[in-house]
Design goal:
- By secondary structure, the protein is α/β, with parallel strands linked by helices.
- Among the domains are: 155 residues, Rossmann fold (3-Layer(aba) Sandwich), CATH 3.40.50; 97 residues, ANL, C-terminal domain (GMP Synthetase, Chain A, domain 3, 2-Layer Sandwich).
- The longest helix has 17 residues.
- It is globular and about 70 Å long.
- It contains 15 helices and 27 strands.
- The two termini are 41 Å apart.
């Protein structure tokens, strides 16, 4: 069943029940939307796009911050037969222009936060864009844009006469572009549908669950985790703004049962508890059954500490890529707490292998590249046959991640292929070192990179963010690192913030540029 059909089914079964709740704690604002209204707004949006000349297969850019309108707009684009093109809200004008040109976008839907960026490149966009649609207060609306609410009020609720097949194109998701310009990942309706069932199989959502959505909806991660709730008509809460107190308040007041966190947010909650900035007894948290983390490696020390404060929580970690329709191709499994540190086993319907550079399986326990095959594998990198040929081989998706498999067939992520540090001929995997360093009681966050060295080729450098209110010296870190082999120890230590993108991944290119003067990325063979 296509996800647009799942939405219609939810409206029929649960029409008057709340589907979406929006919380904006900084303004003390809350609003909600029923499944019936959600479905109707998607239909109105689809028909409005059709009336404006959008045909099946056309591309519609969606450039919006998280809000209650985000998902009805997205589903409206899909229901119209067009391809949804959600863009990273951190993209500056040049990347927005680049994505619009690749997609040949005919409509741009945007929020008030993006007015200046759209104005900067509108002259270029006008060569192809037919209309601009503004989702925001009318007094902020640029005069060249149509008002979203006006568009819906002039549309109709007759289901659009668009025949959609599971194999039809559904969406273009651009990669983050942290090492260059973004690549466009083309996903089908079948890809999106599969994500619903994979997520629901892994986390066993029922109609009574409530999912707290904090990460950005433009990314496959947050949305595809929500799909597990969506497929059974369960509620979701969309957060605008993040803090430990706001998260706990939302869980308590909305009776949230499932929270997907990024590592920094989980760390912030633990620090707030330890510093007594929040008191768990002040919140109703008994119904909170699952905390899971994805989008980045998870330090085992974090989860061990989490379980001290939340002993009854199920925990899962999820590995995924945009090219695999988000999370779920590998997951730890809620029953495998004894394997914390591993990314897990193949997800529902997925196959995994670890191979060498010739695509031959490596011996058990040896590092190699993780490759995947399953229902979420992208159709292609749009308009990029060279990158597609490098990434899709005989139906397998090459992830570029180095991993190993243990004797119980659990997969352990070691690092990104391009991030491996080679010092004196020895491979050092930054993620392993980051997981070790984060175990120090004073370290809040850490990023490890390689710095060029005339003698060794590269040396290890660690960029360390100390926990609030604490002080730390390089000597303390060096003493802590005496537990690991000498060649793996950081030769350079810097105290600084660790830059992360909206999905929590460390922005290694920024660290390399700042501390090593390296502006280009490169890949090395294992």
């Amino acid at each position: 069943m296509l996800i647009t059909e799942i939405l219609a089914e939810n409206a029929r079964l649960y029409g008057n029940e709340a589907a979406l709740v929006e919380r904006e704690p900084a303004k003390n604002k809350r609003s909600e939307m029923t499944w019936k209204t959600f479905d109707e707004q998607a239909t109105l949006m689809a028909n409005a796009l059709g009336h404006k000349g959008i045909d099946k297969g056309d591309d519609v850019i969606q450039l919006m911050m998280n809000c209650i309108e985000w998902l009805p707009v997205y589903f409206g684009i899909l229901r119209s037969g067009a391809r949804a093109v959600p863009l990273n809200f951190r993209f500056l004008a040049d990347k927005i222009r680049f994505c619009a040109e690749i997609a040949e976008a005919k409509i741009v839907i945007f929020g008030e936060e993006f007015i200046d960026r759209i104005n900067e490149i509108k002259g270029d966009l006008d060569k192809r864009v037919l209309f601009y649609i503004f989702v925001g207060p009318d007094d902020k609306r640029p005069d060249y844009a149509l008002q979203y609410t006006d568009l819906l009020s002039s549309s109709d609720l007759q289901p659009p006469d668009i025949q959609l097949d599971p194999s039809d194109d559904a969406a273009l998701y651009f990669t983050s572009g942290t090492t260059g310009m973004p690549k466009a990942v083309l996903l089908t309706h079948q890809n999106l549908e599969s994500a619903c069932y994979v997520e629901n199989r892994h986390h066993r959502q029922t109609h009574e669950d409530n999912f707290l959505c904090i990460p950005p909806l433009y990314h496959t991660g947050a949305k595809m985790h929500w799909f597990g709730n969506f497929v059974v008509g369960a509620k979701a809460v969309i957060m605008k703004g993040v803090s430990p107190r706001w998260i706990l308040e939302a869980v308590s007041e909305e009776k949230v049962t499932i929270v997907w966190l990024l590592v920094p947010w989980a760390l912030d909650i633990l620090i707030a508890i330890e510093k007594n900035d929040v008191e768990l007894k002040d919140y109703e948290l008994d119904q909170w059954r699952l905390m899971h983390i994805g989008a980045q490696p998870v330090p085992p020390s974090l989860i061990k500490k989490w379980k001290k404060f939340f002993p009854d929580h199920d925990y899962d970690t999820n590995y995924g890529l945009t090219e695999a329709t988000g999370p779920g191709c590998v997951h730890l499994g809620m029953e495998n707490l004894h394997k914390i540190g591993a990314i897990g086993i193949p997800g529902f319907g997925w196959e995994c292998r670890i191979v060498d550079i010739k695509m031959n399986p490596v011996p058990l326990g040896e590092p190699g590249e993780l490759i995947l095959k399953g229902p979420g594998v992208m159709k292609t990198y749009y308009k990029n046959p060279e990158a597609t040929a490098d990434t899709l081989v005989d139906g397998w998706l090459l992830t570029g991640d180095i991993a190993r498999m243990d004797k119980e067939n659990f997969i352990w992520l070691i690092d990104r292929k391009k991030d491996v540090i080679i010092t004196g001929g020895e491979n050092i995997y930054p993620v392993e070192l980051e997981n070790f360093l984060i175990g120090h009681e004073k370290i809040h966050d850490v990023g490890v990179i390689g710095i060029p060295d005339d003698r060794l080729g590269e040396i290890v450098a660690a960029v360390v963010k100390v926990k609030p209110g604490m002080e730390m010296t390089k000597e303390e870190i060096q003493a802590f690192c005496e537990q690991i082999p000498r060649y793996r120890r950081p030769r350079k230590i810097f105290f600084d913030d660790v830059p992360r993108n909206p999905t929590g991944k460390i922005e290694k290119p920024k660290l390399r540029k700042k501390y090593a003067g390296i502006t280009a990325s490169f890949k090395r063979e294992i």
